[in-house]
Write a structure and sequence with these properties.
Elements: H1 29-62, H2 66-70, H3 74-83, H4 85-90, H5 92-101, H6 104-122, H7 128-142, H8 145-154, H9 159-187, H10 198-220, H11 233-245, H12 258-266, H13 268-297, H14 302-330, H15 333-353, H16 357-384, H17 389-405, H18 407-410, H19 423-455, E1 462-463, H20 474-478, E2 481-482, H21 485-492
Parallel strand pairs: 1-2
Helix pairs in contact: 1-8, 1-9, 1-10, 1-13, 3-7, 5-8, 5-17, 6-7, 6-8, 6-10, 8-17, 9-14, 9-16, 12-17, 13-14, 13-16, 13-17, 13-19, 14-16, 15-16, 15-19
Length: 503
């Protein structure tokens, strides 16, 4: 910090107390956190479970002669997978802006209701054109759910609490991966019921359940902390105060301004975050869509392949929870990312070189234990280093959207002509993971360097309305001039000189 009295000091101007007239002394923080956990996380986990289950059902349906019944080639099947990702990725940033401006209970539930209908329609397909159309509509309907949930959770918890909650919610994806194989194997026994093949019933029943849950969501999903109906007035105020103490200065509401979008677009963190998300989202989609096929092709068939995918997902669920707990406890999410991506590199090198089904199956465990835990760990890491609710929402949506867009690539890498070992596909996924490792290393290095610059006072702002005073530090003038510390906090967000990034 500079020694000039006109330069911002952490103690020079305390942030005004949110709703200062409200007494929160009787609020039990631990009990309140449990109350929020029970109300917020489980239902969101169910939503994402259904999202992941519905999106990946086509991979299971393919094993039960869907492609043959529709008369589509392998290339056409890959195109149908690909077209899903374009609307899914491109609509995500706009979705998060809408989510912050209206109630989450309305936006997330409506999204879910529409995609449930689209899923049911998959069960009545007759040709390739219908399949492509429905995959595009599914991408439109599901766009924004994942970044919306991540952003929504980040508005409830401190940075040191976020990893565990995101991991708990994201484990539903691994459970969906395990459950989808069991469910598909069970539903396939309905083959011939009402004159429909077993793969049709997979889509119809899963879509119907999604619609029912969407209707319930309108009442179950809570809004943002400042208006949450399940909390008392004192509890709502307490939540906002503890978030502001954790440098989430936008907690309690923030008026939308176009400059928040530009702050995100100009921030180098946004683009490195996109590289990190690219590093795990490309592999994630490929893994979830093709794990049954990969196992199937190395001498395990149809139902056996679906059932053998279950232990892989159970293992990744366990690792995801452990990583979430360790990340919150140690706070070293960058180092965790490097370790996880490194494990993925080993897994895919084995898949590329393996000629043994058992060894390839073991490598699937390594790949899963790298891909799935990296997602919530990276989400918590990026979210905790971006302040300003709109800026954070846009940054997360851009990173997640770019990562998801790479699903359009990774959904095409496992070609039938490369069976049974799929070396080309594994090699491309290996390159994705390497990109994730490099971007994580760069992200951590640059965050540390920025913290050091702030420790040296190189980012200090001038807190003084009198522009005529002499002797002002020129570097501080370049960093901005504000009436109060609170103005600097609100205006600059994570660029404020006293904000410290987590490594």
């Amino acid at each position: 910090m500079s020694h000039s009295g006109s330069i911002v000091s952490l103690t020079a101007d305390k942030d005004e107390l949110y709703e200062a007239h409200v007494d929160t002394s009787q609020v039990d923080e631990r009990r309140l956190l449990r109350k929020i956990d029970i109300r917020v996380v489980p239902w969101l986990a169910l939503l994402y479970f259904l999202n992941f289950l519905d999106r990946g059902s086509i991979g299971n349906a393919k094993l039960y002669d869907m492609a043959t019944d529709l008369g589509i080639t392998d290339k056409q099947y890959l195109i149908a997978l690909t077209v899903f990702f374009f609307p899914y990725a491109l609509l995500e940033p706009a979705s998060n802006v809408v989510l912050r401006r209206i109630r989450p209970s309305v936006w997330l539930s409506s999204m879910m209701f529409v995609w449930g209908i689209v899923m049911m329609c998959h069960g009545f397909l007759h040709n390739y054109g219908g399949l492509v159309t429905l995959r595009v509509l599914l991408g439109v309907a599901e766009a924004g759910l994942y970044p919306g949930i991540v952003f929504y959770i980040s508005c409830w918890y401190k940075r040191s609490e976020l990893g565990t909650r995101v991991a708990a919610f994201f484990t539903s994806a691994t459970i969906a991966g395990a459950f989808s194989g069991l469910l598909a194997a069970a539903i396939s026994n309905m083959n011939g019921v009402a004159g429909k093949p077993g793969w049709s019933w997979i889509f119809i029943l899963e879509g119907l359940f999604t619609i029912l849950c969407a209707v319930a969501s309108y009442r179950i999903i809570s809004n943002f902390p400042e208006t949450a109906g399940f909390l008392t007035k004192e509890e709502r105020v307490f939540v906002i105060r503890r978030l502001r103490d954790d440098m989430q200065f936008s907690a309690g509401g923030e008026e939308f301004k176009v400059r928040y979008i530009w702050q995100s677009l100009r921030d180098w963190k946004t683009y490195l975050a996109m590289g990190i998300y690219m590093g795990f989202d490309g592999p994630l989609f490929a893994f979830s869509l093709f794990t049954p096929t990969i196992i199937d092709e190395v001498r395990y068939k149809a139902t056996t392949a679906n059932l053998l995918s279950v232990p892989v997902y159970v293992w990744s669920c366990i690792v995801t929870v452990i990583v979430g707990l360790v990340g919150d406890r140690l706070g070293k999410r960058g180092y965790i990312n490097l370790f996880l991506f490194g494990t993925g590199l080993v897994g895919y090198i084995i898949l590329i070189t393996s000629r043994t089904p058992a060894l390839s199956y073991f490598a699937c465990f390594l790949a899963a234990s790298a891909i799935y835990p990296t997602v919530p760990n990276s989400v918590a890491w990026v979210a905790s280093n971006v302040e300003g609710s709109y800026k954070r929402g846009i940054t997360l949506a851009m990173a997640i959207g770019w990562g998801n867009l790479n699903g359009a690539v990774s959904s095409n890498v496992y070609r039938a002509v490369d069976a049974p070992w799929y070396r080309l596909g594994h090699g491309i996924i290996l390159a994705y993971i390497a990109i994730g490792w490099l971007c994580s290393a760069a992200f951590m290095f640059l965050l540390r360097r920025e913290n050091e610059r702030r420790d040296r006072g190189e980012r200090d702002e001038v807190i003084d309305s009198d522009s005529s005073r002499e002797g002002m530090d020129q570097l501080a003038l370049k960093n901005g001039r504000f009436e109060t510390v609170n103005d600097a906090r609100r205006e600059k967000g994570d660029e404020w000189s006293q904000f410290r990034y987590t490594l």
